[in-house]
Task: inverse folding
């Protein structure tokens, strides 16, 4: 398949993922994240296995579309779970745990997948990953609960502290859609998260082809690039969560979210731009690793702000943000492939991506996480919450 066809393959997943992001996030807010996670991972596991049964462009296109439909809502529901399970001053750390786990898997996957593929066939890793997903569902059913009060093994003092100081609060009022969609902070979040999402899919989908065809990397060099980059992402996510919470405690929630978000996105853009002027492979790997290291924790200020302003609707707010980000990413991966074919190289689309990241990073200064998307009474109580918390 050519680059344009691969763009459509990647885009099919992103389009369906975007379309079902808001409904899945809102559904998790309504019935609880436990049921949402079980549904998502069962669907993910089935269509991961089905990917190994595809036989050509159209079957792969269909499976990837259905794949994205089922996986939609994973991140919004993770944000919703953090709003229920972590006190407000530990929001960033809660999100960093989710992202660190995701990137740890990305670091390990290339070598494990290639070993299985080399030993059996390219289809085998999809069947193995599908089975792992089903095993995860069994663990989730037997262990995970929607609220600390439902978990028997948590000490009463810890349970009481979390539920008294978390962002989540029970509510029955209708969702103020018009107010939400006109909110400046959410619109700015859509901008910066869309840019970050495009960069994320560049690293995830297009980097192997870019390194092979434009930078003439060997298969082994590409594998090591991914492993090193995503191992650094795991470390970056873990420490960024602690750093973000520390900054918020010292400088306030507005400075903490804005400064971290701006720094992460702008440094990633500079890294992507800088590596285009380098020819040494080890130096390219180093610079790209820096880009992934700074991009990977972007979910912490982005989804952290969704929890800050969303409270009991954190999943819905995160779903709205990620809907537009994934829709933008769908257009990005398709257009990126077309630009590669049209310009007969990667240089132009890579320059455009770097410029977009640098420009959009300034959008973080329009985000105000101190103003929740709730009624006046609730907004006041949530705004005060971080100042009322004491360290455990």
Result:
């Amino acid at each position: 398949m050519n680059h344009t066809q691969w763009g459509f393959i990647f885009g099919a997943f992103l389009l369906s993922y975007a379309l079902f992001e808001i409904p899945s996030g809102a559904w998790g807010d309504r019935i609880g994240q436990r049921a949402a996670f079980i549904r998502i991972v069962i669907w993910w596991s089935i269509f991961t296995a089905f990917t190994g049964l595809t036989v050509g462009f159209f079957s792969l296109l269909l499976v990837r579309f259905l794949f994205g439909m089922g996986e939609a809502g994973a991140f919004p529901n993770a944000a919703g779970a953090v709003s229920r399970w972590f006190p407000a001053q530990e929001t960033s750390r809660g999100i960093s745990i989710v992202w660190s786990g995701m990137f740890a898997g990305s670091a390990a996957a290339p070598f494990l997948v290639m070993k299985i593929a080399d030993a059996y066939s390219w289809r085998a890793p999809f069947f193995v990953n599908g089975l792992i997903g089903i095993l995860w569902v069994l663990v989730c059913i037997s262990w995970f609960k929607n609220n600390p009060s439902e978990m028997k093994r948590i000490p009463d003092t810890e349970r009481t502290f979390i539920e008294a100081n978390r962002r989540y609060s029970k509510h029955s009022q209708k969702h103020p859609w018009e107010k939400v969609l006109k909110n400046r902070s959410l619109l700015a979040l859509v901008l910066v998260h869309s840019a970050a999402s495009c960069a994320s899919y560049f690293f995830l989908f297009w980097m192997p082809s870019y390194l092979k065809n434009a930078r003439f990397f060997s298969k082994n060099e590409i594998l090591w690039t991914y492993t090193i980059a995503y191992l650094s992402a795991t470390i970056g996510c873990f420490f960024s969560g602690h750093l973000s919470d520390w900054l918020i405690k010292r400088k306030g929630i507005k400075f903490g979210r804005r400064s971290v978000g701006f720094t992460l996105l702008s440094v990633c853009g500079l890294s992507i731009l800088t590596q285009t002027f380098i020819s040494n492979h080890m130096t390219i790997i180093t610079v790209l690793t820096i880009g992934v290291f700074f991009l990977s924790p972007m979910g912490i200020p982005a989804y952290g702000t969704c929890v800050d302003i969303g409270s009991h609707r954190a999943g819905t707010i995160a779903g709205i943000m990620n809907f537009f980000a994934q829709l933008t990413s769908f257009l990005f991966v398709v257009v990126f492939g077309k630009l590669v074919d049209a310009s007969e190289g990667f240089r132009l689309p890579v320059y455009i991506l770097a410029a977009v990241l640098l420009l959009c990073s300034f959008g973080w200064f329009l985000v105000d996480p101190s103003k929740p998307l709730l009624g006046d009474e609730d907004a006041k109580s949530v705004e005060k919450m971080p100042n009322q918390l004491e360290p455990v």
The domain at 3-163+194-383 is CATH 1.20.1250.20 (Growth Hormone; Chain: A;). The mean pLDDT is 85.
